[in-house]
Each structure stands twice: as C-alpha cells, then as structure tokens.
Amino acid sequence: MSLGPRLEFRQTQSLVMTPQLMQAIKLLQLSNLDLVAYVEAELERNPLLERQAEPEGERAAAGEGEADAGAVRERTSDADLDPRAEAAGERDGRDERDGRDERVSDWLEERLDTSRSAIEDRLDTGMENVFPDDAGREPVAPSPSSEGPSYSEWTGTGGGGQDSEGYNLEAFVSAETSLADHLESQLVLAVSDPVERLIGLNLIDLIDEAGYLAADLAGVAERLGAPAATVEKVLAVVQTFDPPGIGARSLAECLAIQLRERNRYDPCMAALLAHLELLARREFATLKRVCGVDDEDLAEMVGEIRRLNPKPGLAFGSGIIQPVVPDVFVRGATDNWLVELNSETLPRVLVNQAYYARVQKITRNEREKAFLSDCMQTATWLTRSLDQRARTILKVATEIVRQQDAFLSLGVQHLRPLNLRMVADAIGMHESTVSRVTSNKYMATPRGIFEMKYFFSSSISSSDGGEAHSAESVRFRIKQMIEAERPDDVLSDDTLVQRLRELGIDIARRTVAKYREAMRIPSSVQRRREKQAAVSAG
Q1: Strands 336-341 and 328-333
Q2: Which of 369, 428, 528, 538 has the CB geometry, 3.0–4.6 Å to 490, for a possible disulfide?
Q3: Can you tell me which family this protein belongs to (predicted)?
Q4: pLDDT at 189 over 50
Q5: Which domains does the chain have, with CATH numbers?
Q6: Lowest mean pLDDT among 60-69, 216-225, 322-331, 434-443
Q7: Beta bridge mates, 450
Q8: Rounded average pLDDT over 215-233
Q9: Are the C-beta atoms of residues 434 and 423 closer than 8 Å to each other?
Q10: pLDDT attached to residue 184
C-alpha cells in the first residue's frame, strides 16, 4: 500500500443552520408579547431599524385636531404681530397701571429711600450686622410685573415644586402590599419584645405565597437558638393576624383558625376537621357516626367549611394577569369564514435606507464598514422574517379553520380529529413548522378565544365504521352526560361506555376513566354520596 497525495471528488449533502435561519425559526415560535420585546431590543441595538409610521387613516382624526390647533396658533400670532392690537394693549396696560397707582397713593404718598444710611436709620442697626448663614444668600430678584409673582413662579420653588430635586408624583401612589409587608406591619404592633419580634420576622419569611408555614418549628428553634416554647408562642400570635388562617401548618389547622375567628369551632367541627379525608371521599355516613350529628347538622357543617378560604395568602402579592391577545381573528358565518391577522400584535419596523446611504459615505475604516454591513443585513433579514412569520401564521390558521368549520358552526361536539401532519401536508410545510406556529398563538372565533393547539386532538374510531371522533368532543359528551344525571341514577364508567357506543363512539372503559379524571370529575360512588347529601340538606 503506497502513501502519497492524490485528488478526490466527493459529493455530500448537509443541513447548515445559518444565523438568519435560526432567527426566523425563533421568531416563528414566539408569542406576540415575546415578539414585541425581541423587536424592541433589536430597535435599540440596530441603528438602521426604525418604527413604521402610522397609516394615514389612523392619523386622520389626529390631523384634524392638529389643524384646529394650528389655526388657533395662527390667529394668536396674527394678533401679536398687528401693530394696532399691540398699541391697544399698551393703552390698556397704562390705564390699568394708572388706576393701580391711584389706589396705592391712598396709603403711600412718597417712595421709600433705599440708600444705606436711610435703611440703617429705619432699622436702627448697621448693614454689616448679619448672621453668617445669611451671608451667602443671594437676594431674590423682584418680579417684573407689579402684580406679584405668577402661578408658575410660585409652583417653581419650594418643597414639591418644579425646581426641587427628587420630586416624583408617582412616589405618592400607593404600591401593592405584599403578604410579608402586611404581616410585618401587624407584628410591630402585636409583639414588643425584640427577641420575639426577631422570631416573628423569621417565621413570616418562611410563610409561602398560599399562607402556609412549611418549615419545622423544631428546626427553626434550633437554627435561631431559641426555646421551642417561645417559637410556638410567637407562631400563635402570628396566626391571629389578618387574613384569618395565616401561618397554618396544614389545611385542617388553617380551617380551624378561620372557624375560631367566626366562633364556629366546636367539638363536632373539630372531629370533622380531623377526618377531612373522609369528607374528600364523600363518606358522609362515616362522618355522621364520627362527629355524632345527623344529616342536617352535617350538611350545615360541610357548608360552613366550603365558605372558608383554604389559601388565605393568595389575597396579597398576586401578579397582574395578562389578558390573552388573539393573533388571528375569525369572522363570518357558515361556509364563509374570514381569517385575518391581528395587526395590533404585529410589530411595524422599516430599514432606514437613507440613513444607511448617508453613514456609508463617511465610514473611515474596515471595522466601521463591517459593523454597518452587519446592521444592514440583520435589519433586512428581520423585516423579511417578520413578514414571513405573518404569512405562515395566516396560512396555518386558514387551514385550521377549513378543517374545523363544523366546530365553528355547530359546537364542540363536532370537533374533528386533527394532527400536525394533516395541516402540514395540506399547506406544503413541515410538521415542525406547524408546531412552532401553533405554539403560544391564539385564535378569536365566534365561540371564544382558543389556543391553536386546542384544535389538534387525537381520534377515536367509530363503532359503526363511520368517521372518527375527536377526543375533545368525546370529553365534552362525557361531561354533558354527567351533568345531566339524576341523584337516583348516577352513571358509572361502564354505563358511560355503553351510552357512548350507542352514539357510535368505540371507546374503552379506562379511556373514559382517564378523561373523567382529567376533567376533575369524581367517581360515580363519590358523586352519588354528594348528590344524596345535597338532597338531604335540601
């Protein structure tokens, strides 16, 4: 075998992820809020990008207001430039000053002498007799008008005026109170001992957002080096704070604190709280025997517990809920649906070609030219990616509406089974592209706002060989059947399977149980006990 250099030709294929392609993929899966944040960052980083001006139609109303304001300014400026108007103003000013001088002359017949000797004679002191703090103070300039300082001069000085540093009107707006701040303000008033107050602050820090104390008191006492009895004492004080039920270590303790606040904690209620697992399983017969009460008293006790708040801490420090803004609007009627993008969620950016041409002429070295070229390439690709993203979303949404027209016309029970491959094959795209488009995107329809992924569901075969059924429509039918059942005729999972098969839906019992548990619907045994208890209470 000889070793030596030689030439070879090879033909290969490879997929190269360019930065531009990665950016386009990233933009495609962003929600409208994330997209706005991304574009804002690009506007700050890239000097060649700028926001697109509003269309002429949107500025028509604003233009009319500006025209009216311009006419007012024009009339005002004409009056200012008119010599006759100016002369008339001077005459009015002289008349006003003459009348004011006549009024002043009633009590002041002669002008005061402002010479140094006259001032020293009137004050009976020398001008050099001043305090050191007043030596560097400059005299206040008199107002040019004899009527005294204007409104703007009064508001421009002093505390809270325009000239005062650090003045901010927003500082007077009350901020949102957190749970920890609310509890600490009560701790200052309830506990005076510094050691107990320190323990209370530590316990407040350990309370979670739901209002529960998840830490072990023995561990807290060991970490702080305090007696366990003292920690228990401070915790008992914290549990008396508002909101009721705060600082509890379990659900039963939280409910017990609130019942003590309402003066409803008696031995029967204590026995009920000690067996909350029986209440969760709706074993009311066992609860009546344990608590020693009849049906009416048990129904009243259960109703009292249901009126309590199991998570009292959630009333404080809750974040602002961001409303869902749809990316696509669907309007129209049966067989005539109009699909359009929400223009409010689409950032409007342009490439400033004029600025690029002007700056390109004054570049001095290769580094500046490379930076300017990179900015131009990034800006151009961003505008193209945004346009392609909008077109892709509209194409996918149109195909979803075409596939699910029965849902829009008739309701959830007519939702058809749909997957990513069906949409991708119909519009000539890859499944991953359709998946990115439908992520974090919402569609506003006449039946409400739905996430685009809502329209994709698995199929359940038909028992009579007909068209398959959507899993979402099957869940809707199960929920309808359970809501319509009577207290003396509660449907079991086997009965639900039988009724669904009568409707042409071939489904297994374990699938029905899985759908029921996903909708948080109790079993037939628990529903029967709950309905019987409701009938007894009624």
Answers
A1: antiparallel
A2: 528
A3: Belongs to the sigma-54 factor family.
A4: yes
A5: 179-315 (no CATH), 328-457 (no CATH), 469-536 (1.10.10)
A6: 60-69
A7: 443
A8: 90
A9: yes
A10: 92
